[in-house]
Each structure stands twice: as structure tokens, then as C-alpha cells.
Amino acid sequence: MSFDYDLFVIGAGSGGVRAARMSASYGAKVAIAEEHRVGGTCVIRGCVPKKLFVYASHFAEEFEDAAGFGWEVGQSSFDWSKLVANKDTEIDRLNKIYMRNLEASGVEILNGRAVFKDAHTVMMDGREITANYILIAVGATPFMPQIEGIEHAISSNEAFYLKDFPSDITIVGGGYIAVEFAGIFNGLGANVTLVYRGEEILRGFDGDIRTHVQEEMVKKGIDVQTQNDVTSIKKVGVGFEVTFNNGTRRETSCVMYATGRVPYVQGLGLDIVDVELGSKGEIKVDTYSQTSIDNIYAVGDVTDRSQLTPIAIREGAAFAETVFNNTPLAVDHSNIPTAVFSQPPVGTVGMTEEEARDNKFDVDIYKSVFRPMKHTLSGRDEKTLMKLVVDRKTDKVLGLHIVGPDSGEMIQAFGIAVKMGATKSQFDATVAVHPTAAEELVTMKQPVS
After folding, report:
1. Within a domain: residue 287?
2. Same structural domain for residues 12 and 122?
3. pLDDT by residue (tens digit) across 86-107?
4. Active-site residue among 58, 212, 375, 434?
5. Is 434 a catalytic residue?
6. Domain range holding 120?
7. What does the alpha-carbon distance between residue 369 and residue 14 come to, in Å, rounded to a whole number?
8. Number of domains in the chain
């Protein structure tokens, strides 16, 4: 049987684009379908614009800190509309680069939502398209709970395009997206309340990190309410009245939900082709990203293996190697370095202390909490945390966790060491770079009790 394409990719985010370009480089005839904008969540409405907003939110503290170094900063003001416009210009630039790279690779870009008709056929705007292989890379979408008044709330998608800056915002959630946006809006001057139903924010991260970040957020003036949740949202005048499950109410100018993301599989026609789904709606795949249907594969957030852009890119590349370069390649999802651009930011790789103990490791914990050198003159009351989780039997560093300035940059390099199985003795044998915060990770000598 002849097909229109060797590969048809549904979704032009990071994973889909990488898979499409690499597959084309191996001689495949490739088309990619995208119903929104090429670039996906990360580039268009995720980590890239979020990082730009994080940069913007730092300036208020930078202006204050300058005084300790002899600078007198004049009166300053913030223009939300200018930030949004400049962000849009940058996203437009990146979108065009993604499209140009796809076209240069020989990949045909199709605009619209592709829906399965059978295992080798999709429908787009009444057009029937066939392919030998089909790759699903549609990502995930924000989860919005069905509570009274949820239509008044926004998600992180809309937060990047708000027409007016919210003077007061209530953010529901305790994961990295909620925590990052709490820091962003707080730094830009909003009154921020973060509501999380759990005992402490950043579930799944190391316990010391969770406590430390939450304490630092409170220091910055963010009202962190744990073991609480929103039961209803009501429009009141120009704002909203939020009711909590403890019976209290508050008025706010904006309600934002960041309570997780779910695979974006609705309306794809997966039931027609019997692609197996998991309990969360995720597409179930094997180690080579193959679904329950032989010629259909899936990569990225839609598989819910690890909702991180670099992982989607790795999975997309591994797919191309496996299917079109005759080099079976499985992605290793262990020891993934991760950054949370909270304020202060987090860098982490490997096991948390809790995971290590749950897995019956006999561990030594090395930990240091200190004031960053910058703040000895700025006077800011912000602390850095550094922590090593070490297997006492083998001396191997099982986990490394940082909260503090530049932790996202640091964790990339330290992630290599942990991935390679470095030992605490090898950390100790590494000469410290002085004066830096990172030197603390190679100079901690005694485990904490």
C-alpha cells in the first residue's frame, strides 16, 4: 500500500518538531499538523515567555538591592502592556524560526486539528491523509476543576495575554507553575495569595526544598495558604469573590488555576483506532514510545512520562532514530536535572531524601543554609539552601538539591556528575571555585545528624 507520507506528526511542539526534522533528515517524507502555532507549549505559552516574565519580576528587588552597593536608583515604574508586547515580539520571532527550520528540513506544515480515521489515516478539514507511521505529540493542557464559577478563572495560558495587570491575584495550586507565577506577579507588584490543598507546596520535591521555598515566598509577602482550596468563584463588580473550603471569602481582581496539566487527547479519535490510554488519559507507550498500535507512536507530555520540554525533545529524537535510522533508542528517564524558576529558584537532580529512604538506602545528608554573598551588602533576608543525599554504603551521590540564585544554571553541570554516578569523595576532591555559592557543594564535610 502506498501512503501520502512516511510520517505524519500530530502536534508541532518541541517533541514533534524534533521528530519531524530528524526523520526527514533520514529520508522520510514528513508532514506535521498544528492547530495553534508552531513551537508548542514551551515556546508559545510556557517556559520561554514564563522565563521572560521571571526576569521582569526581578527588577524591583534589584533596584532595592542596588542601594547597598552605592547606587541611588531614581523613581521607577512598570508597564505591563509593554512587557506583554515585547514578549509577543520575541515569541513571534521564535515561531518563525521553528517554521523556517521545519521547511528547511523538507517537512510540510499543515494548519489544523488532525483526527484519526484509522491506524494509517487522519482527517483534516475534510481532507483524508494517509501515512505509514503516525506520531502523536499533542502535549498537555491545563486542568480546570468543575467548581461553581470556574468560567471566571484563567490558566497559565491566559496569564501571558492579560490585557490589564491584576493588582490582586489568587493563584490556586502548589506545583511549579503556580509557585513560579506567584513569584512573577508578586515581583511585578501584585498582591498575591497562593492557595494549595496540600500540607506544603511543590509536592514531589525534596522536603527541605519545599519548606525552604515556602518560607522564602512568605518573606517576600506572598500569602501562602496550605490545606485550603477554592469552592466557588463569583463575579463581583470589576473583580471576583472567592470562597474557600474553610468558609472564608476574599475579593480579588484575578483567579488563576495552576492545578496540573492533563494529556490533550480529546477529539483525536484515539478510540477509533484503539490506542490504549492510562488512568489519567495519557497515551500508554513502551520504552521506544510505541503505542498499542504498531505504527502509531507518541512522545512528550501526552504520554505523561515526564512533562519537561527537554524530555519531549529526547523522545522525539529517539523515535526518529528507532523508526527511520534503524537504531533503536530508548530514553533514560532517571536522574533528570530540573529547574523551578521560583523566587528563589530551585535546581534539583536525582533522589529526594524521602525517596532514598523509601528505597531502603542508608543515607548521609549534607546540608548548608547560608546568606548569598550578594546579600551581605544588599541586606536582603534571603537564604540559599544546598543539600546532598549520599548512599553511605557506596558513597554515591543519589540526589543534589539547591535553592538560591543561579541554581538552574548550576544544576545543569552538577546533573552531569550525578548522572555519571559521582561519589561524595569525588565531590570533595574537586577544587572549589571561590567565592561562589556552588563551592558549598564541594566543601561540605560533615553530614547533618
Report:
1. yes
2. yes
3. 999 999 999 999 999 999 999 9
4. 434
5. yes
6. 5-142+262-324
7. 37
8. 3
